[in-house]
Automatic annotation (TrEMBL):
InterPro entries (UniProt xref): ATXR2-like, SET_dom, SET_dom_sf, Znf_MYND
SMART domains: SET
UniProtKB keywords: Metal-binding, Zinc, Zinc-finger
Domain of life: Eukaryota
Region Disordered, residue ranges: 146-166
Metal-binding keyword on record: yes
Protein's UniProt name: SET domain-containing protein
One Pfam family cited in the UniProt record for this chain: zf-MYND
Domain SET: 43-458
GO molecular function, one term: methyltransferase activity
Cross-referenced PROSITE patterns: SET
SUPFAM superfamilies in UniProt: SET domain
Taxonomic path: Eukaryota, Viridiplantae, Streptophyta, Embryophyta, Tracheophyta
Organism: Picea sitchensis
Entry annotated with the keyword Zinc-finger: yes
Length: 491
C-alpha cells in the first residue's frame, strides 16, 4: 500500500526535501568545484556545463599519454560484504592492513568457517530429505559435528562456495599460527602492511590502517553507525538489524547510511561549536557535495535485470522500493531524530542510492597477497625452490582466487562528473603505487587543454547498437562523437 511509504511525512516536509533535490545553480557548481580546485584536489581540471551531457570535466592543461589526470578521494564508500572474507582492509581508506601472514591466515580461517557453516546447513537440509543435497553431503565427508574433515584434499564440493573447488585445506594449527604471528612466511617482510588499529568506539566490525583513519571515520560517519560501546547510535539492535539487512540484500545501503550520518554529525558538531539553533540551511551547506551528484530515484533508474520479464517490470520496481523502505526503517530505528526527518525520508534515501547507481563508483584495490606470490615465483631458482617448500601449501590452500582484490562501492566527487565516451581519452587504472581506495584516472592519449575528459562506462569495442543497449542500463542514449557519427552513417 502506498501509504506505507510515509507519503504524509513527505508532504509535510515537501519544501525541505525539494531543497535537497534541487539541481544546483551554475554559480553553486562553480563555487563547489572551485573550492576543490583550490584545495589542490583537481588543480588541472575544470567543471563546466556541456550542451547535451549535463556537467562534465575539462582539461585545464595539456596532458601527455599515460599521465595522471585525476586522483579522487572517496567521500563515502565501503568494501563489499562478500569481499570482507578475502581482503582485510582499512575501513576508511581501504588499504590492506596487518601482514601478509594475517591476510592469508584470515582468509583461510574465514573460508574454513564458511565451509563448516555450509556443511552444517547441508546436514540440516539433509535431515529434511532434500535428495540433491543428500548426494552432496555424502561427498563432503562430514564428521559428527557437521564439520568437513580437516585435512581433506582437493574437493569438488557443490555444497561449498565456488572458490573452494580447487583448494586444499591446511591443519587448523597452521592457520592459527599465521593469525597469531608465530609463523613467518619467507620474504614477507618485503611487503610490509600498516598495523591494525581498532575502532574508537570498540566495535569488532571496522579496523583501520592508522589512528588518523580511525579518527576520520569516527568523526565523518562511523560514530553514529558503530555497534561498539562508545557508539552515539540510539538503538544498537536496530543498527545491527540495518547492517544485517544490508549485508544480506544490497551493501550499497551501508554507503547511503554513511551519507546521512555524515550530515547529521556535521550538524551536531556545528550546533555544539557555534551554540546555534538548528537551521535547515546548515543541512543544505553540508549536503553540498551530494547536491552536485547526478541522481534519480533508485527504483526508477535501476536497470531491469536480464532474467526479469519486461511485463514484470512494475512489480520489480515495487520490490526494489520495498527493499529501500525496509532498510530505511531499520536505519531510522537506529539514528532517527525529529529535526533530521527530511534527510531520512524515502525520497532522499532513494535518491542517494540512485546517485550511486548512476555514477561510476567501483572501488578496487590490488592485493599484496598477489604481489607476494608473484615475487616468490620470480625469485632465482634456488631461492624460489627453498621458499616454495613453505609457500606452496598456502597457495594451494588459497586456491585459484588467491589474488582476489579489495572490491567495494564508493562515491567520488569528481570522478562522478566524468561523462562517458565510446572513444575515451582516459581510463580508471591503478598503478603500482596506488594502494588505497582512491580513484585514479590516466590519460590514454594526449589530451589538449580545453578538451572534455571522458572515460568509457562500458566495453567500447562493440557495434553501435550493442553499446547503446548497454548504456541504456545507465539511463541515457550516448551522444559521444563516435555514436553520433555511427548513428548518422546508419540512417
Ligand atoms: C556519472 S554522470 C556524469 C556527470 C553528469 N553529466 C552530471 O551532470 O552530473 C552520468 C550521466 O551523465 C550523462 N552522460 C554521461 N555521458 C553521456 C553521453 N556520452 N551521452 C549523453 N549523456 C551522457 C547521463 O545523463 C548520465 O546518466
Amino acid at each position: 500500500m502506498e501509504c506505507e511509504y510515509d507519503l504524509a511525512l513527505e508532504a509535510k516536509y515537501a519544501s525541505e526535501i525539494a531543497s535537497l533535490l534541487a539541481t544546483p545553480s551554475h554559480e553553486a557548481v562553480q563555487k563547489y568545484y572551485g573550492k576543490l580546485a583550490r584545495a589542490g584536489i583537481c588543480p588541472c581540471l575544470m567543471v563546466k556545463q556541456t550542451k547535451d551531457m549535463g556537467k562534465g570535466i575539462f582539461a585545464d592543461k595539456d596532458f601527455q599519454e599515460d599521465e595522471l589526470v585525476l586522483r579522487d578521494r572517496m567521500l563515502v564508500g565501503a568494501q563489499h560484504f562478500s569481499n570482507k572474507v578475502d581482503s582485510f582492509v582499512c575501513s576508511f581508506c581501504c588499504c590492506y592492513i596487518g601482514s601478509i601472514e594475517l591476510q592469508i591466515g584470515r582468509r583461510l580461517f574465514l573460508h574454513g568457517e564458511s565451509m563448516r557453516d555450509r556443511a552444517k546447513e547441508c546436514k540440516i537440509e539433509k535431515s529434511t530429505h532434500c535428495s540433491q543435497l543428500e548426494l552432496v553431503v555424502e561427498s563432503t565427508n562430514l564428521d559428527e559435528n557437521g564439520d568437513g574433515v580437516a585435512d581433506l584434499d582437493t574437493t569438488e564440493d557443490p555444497c561449498s562456495d565456488r572458490h573452494s573447488k580447487t583448494r586444499t585445506r591446511l591443519p587448523e594449527e597452521v592457520v592459527e599460527s599465521l593469525l597469531n604471528g608465530t609463523l613467518k612466511l619467507p620474504y614477507s617482510e618485503r611487503f610490509p602492511l600498516p598495523t591494525v588499529i581498532n575502532c574508537i568506539g570498540g566495535c569488532s566490525e571496522e579496523y583501520y590502517c592508522s589512528t588518523s583513519c580511525a579518527e576520520a571515520a569516527w568523526e565523518t560517519f562511523h560514530s553514529l553507525l558503530c555497534t561498539g560501546e562508545g557508539s552515539l547510535c540510539k538503538n544498537k539492535d536496530e543498527l545491527r538489524n540495518f547492517k544485517q539487512h544490508a549485508d544480506e540484500t544490497n551493501d550499497i545501503f551501508h554507503v547511503a547510511a554513511q551519507v546521512i550520518s555524515m550530515i547529521i554529525l556535521k550538524i551536531k558538531r556545528a550546533k555544539q561549536n557555534l551554540h546555534e539553533d538548528f537551521n535547515w540551511s546548515k543541512v543544505l551547506d553540508f549536503w553540498e557535495p551530494f547536491a552536485m551528484g547526478y541522481k534519480r530515484q533508485w527504483w526508477d533508474c535501476v536497470a531491469l535485470p536480464d532474467d526479469i520479464d519486461p511485463i514484470e517490470e512494475t512489480l520489480f520496481r515495487k520490490e526494489i522500493k520495498d527493499l529501500a523502505w525496509t532498510s530505511l526503517q531499520f536505519l531510522k530505528g537506529a539514528i532517527f531524530e525529529e529535526e533530521y526527518t527530511p534527510l531520512l525520508s524515502l525520497k532522499i534515501y532513494g535518491n542517494i542510492i540512485g546517485m550511486f547507481e548512476l555514477n561510476n563508483l567501483d572501488l578496487i584495490v590490488a592485493s599484496p597477497v598477489e604481489d607476494y606470490f608473484i615475487y616468490i615465483d620470480d625469485l632465482p631458482h634456488s631461492e624460489k625452490d627453498e621458499a616454495e617448500k613453505i609457500t606452496r601449501s598456502f597457495l594451494e590452500a588459497l586456491g585459484d582466487d588467491y589474488a582476489t582484490c579489495c572490491q567495494g562501492s564508493a562515491f567520488f566527487p569528481l570522478q562522478s562528473c566524468i561523462n562517458h565516451s565510446c572513444e575515451p581519452n582516459c581510463k580508471a587504472f591503478k598503478r603500482e603505487q596506488d594502494r588505497d581506495g582512491q580513484a585514479i584516472l590516466i590519460a590514454i592519449r594526449p589530451i589538449m587543454k580545453g578538451e572534455q575528459i571522458f572515460i568509457s562506462y562500458i566495453e567500447e569495442d562493440m557495434p553501435w547498437k550493442e553499446r547503446q543497449a548497454l548504456l541504456s542500463d545507465y539511463g541515457f542514449a550516448c551522444k559521444c562523437c563516435r555514436c553520433l557519427q555511427e548513428q548518422s552513417n546508419s540512417s
